[in-house]
Design brief:
13 helices, disordered N terminus
């Protein structure tokens, strides 16, 4: 029995949603003529750079191709997504460049392929990736280790990051498809640690938490891609909204749902008038004009899933908020008719502390924008689920 599911072209209610979907599809088809089966990351002077396949964002372009293929039946999108997946074989087999982002990379390629086509080779690739991800689990600390040593003598064996909330769905999928509960045990243990050590009482979240890798004792929080250790990096907040909601989806564990709502309420209470977040909610005011559209897009897709999991009153708030974010991204942040810009959604912020890729389109922002539209149009299946 495969995880293959019957799909059909999604339908939507709001006219702007259909318009946005058609614009995203048309622009992606145009972009595909140049990008092909490459791995875009950030747009520079209107052109998406093509990163090495080992880079953590390698899954987002093929993932977006799969989403748009589901809703359009455009065979070229499927073909390119499959080519991207095959190119990642050398990364998976080489092993040494793999880190916690195995989930981002193989959920949006191999799991997507298996869900949509039932391809057994894709299933095997995704299970292999899940095994490598599970092997990064620190038993004493209850966390999946982030990254690898970056240079000679570097020691980061005790680091865990909020982003990994979006990697553990690969482990839940592996348990379901293999019948082996150990993957899900690891995923739950990591998400328990997120609830306990990452999410603050006000619903904000740390980007990085450090642990003693031998004893598992929590040492403290780090700023990471946020402004400061005690600030509130908006994309990290969106990872938490979506990842905790997915953890509840896979387990039914109420702790995850309550934490997801707490983080979502914090996120929504800090949004600007245009419904798109600043890159860090606690950065100095003069820096908050810098938006992160990718955080908005990711949060919107997570909020739409969260809306399905809660009561009608809260669900209406989350769904309406997600629609407002996505509509703002479409109407005020989109680059639909600009022939000099390949990105779909403008004004993303990748890494402010390192001054990298500021105020540019980001491929993961584009991906989550399209995924949010697919949710509004009752599309699916969605690969994280």
């Amino acid at each position: 029995m495969t995880d293959q599911q019957q799909t059909s072209a999604p339908f939507g209610k709001g006219e702007w949603v259909n318009e946005a979907w058609n614009q995203a599809l048309a622009k992606t088809l145009r972009n595909a003529k140049r990008i092909g089966s490459g791995f875009p990351h950030a747009s520079s002077e209107g052109v998406y750079d093509l990163a090495e396949p080992e880079w953590w964002t390698a899954g987002f372009w093929p993932g977006m191709l799969w989403l748009l293929y589901q809703g359009s039946g455009e065979e070229d999108l499927k073909r390119l997504a499959c080519e991207c997946e095959r190119k990642l074989d050398r990364v998976l087999d080489a092993y040494v460049r793999l880190d916690h982002d195995l989930g981002f990379m193989w959920t949006l390629t191999s799991v997507a392929s298996y869900k949509l086509t039932g391809d057994e080779t894709s299933r095997t690739r995704a299970l292999k990736a899940a095994n490598y991800l599970a092997a990064r689990f620190n038993l004493k600390g209850g966390f999946i280790r982030a990254w690898n040593p970056w240079y000679e003598g570097d020691s980061n064996a005790g680091l865990a990051i909020i982003d990994c909330c979006m990697n553990v769905p690969l482990l839940f999928w592996a348990s379901r498809t293999s019948g082996d509960p150990r993957y899900a045990h690891i995923a739950e243990a990591h998400m328990d640690t997120v609830v306990k050590h990452f999410v603050r009482s006000d619903g904000s979240a740390y980007h990085i938490v450090t642990f003693d890798p031998v004893t598992g004792e929590r040492i403290g929080g780090l700023g990471g891609q946020g402004y400061a250790p005690e600030s509130a990096w908006s994309r990290g907040t969106s990872w938490a909204i979506y990842g905790l909601t997915l953890a509840y989806h896979h387990t039914g564990k109420s702790d995850y749902l309550y934490a997801a709502q707490r983080v979502a309420n914090f996120f929504l209470s800090r949004l600007s008038e245009d419904h798109v977040p600043a890159w860090d909610f606690r950065a100095p005011l003069e820096l908050q004009a810098l938006r992160d559209s990718s955080a908005g897009a990711c949060a919107a897709s997570g909020l739409l899933l969260l809306a399905e999991k809660v009561g009608a009153e809260d669900g209406a708030v989350y769904r309406t908020s997600a629609e407002r974010i996505l509509k703002s991204l479409y109407e005020s942040y989109g680059a639909w008719e600009d022939p000099n810009e390949e990105g779909l959604v403008l004004h993303g912020t990748s890494h402010y502390p390192e001054q990298r890729n500021l105020d540019v389109p980001l491929i993961y922002g584009d991906y989550f924008f399209v995924e949010g539209l697919a949710r509004l149009k009752n599309g699916g299946p969605f690969f994280w689920e």
